[in-house]
Amino acid sequence: MSWLELRIEATAQNSSAIEEVLFYIGALSVTTLDAKDSPIYEPDPDHPPIWPEPILVGLFDSDVDQQASMKMLLEYSELDAEQCRWEILEDRVWETEWMQHFKPLHFGDNFWVFSKPVSESTAEKEATTLLLDPGLAFGTGTHPTTAMCLEWIVETNCAGKTLIDYGCGSGLLGVAGLMRGAESASFVDIDPQALLATRQNLQRNQLDPEQFEICPPEVFSAQAADILVANILSGPLVDLSSSFEKLVKPGGLLCLSGILFSQETEILQSYESGFNDLKVQRSGDWLRITGSKN
Asked: pTM of the entire structure?
């Protein structure tokens, strides 16, 4: 089955009105895209910002009357026909579409992340290969924050340790810790899709269910661990600093990311009383902060 998209060049001032019109004329959904790659970091969820030059994409059934829909759109808005165009959208399995463009990721000496099973000849000899499908959750290893955390886990001695992956997303970081020898891991996230993706990735890599727990924060058993990794946003990292201090054993290790360069001072100040030897690693605009419990 195919669909039709109506793509509209809008402005920050008229995008809301155009969105209403699109739904009025039968759009099944409306997506806002950025025409000029204008970054917006950590938007306020109560006051979501609009890009200066947005593109609105209305999704319609393939049998929609394009001429009648366009006539109504132009009648109820101040748009010109030149600002609008119809495109055919072929149906796909969108949850797995990313796999078509995913290239294997290599960390450390012999740790690989693949999107599908590989033959022994594909990866290096004696390599550890992690199979990943994030589903609808965050975390493929390609984003700088995830990559920096994964690199840290691969280089850290996880053997026999307990680990917490807080804000686990796809579960990539905690799964990597288990594959590097961690005794057990707790996966915590507020998003049900993340918990589902994590469970599937643990099964995909044939890990023992007795080694892990997967749960939302409100039912997390909250036992202190040897290692805690949290790749979330700076706001929650600040709010959770005292909780994280309790969740790391004395001498245990902490790895934080999801932090922008401009947020470094705030995060360091939030954790300096409970953790020693805080180190900052930068990748582009993003930071990773690691340390050990006092």
From this structure: 0.68
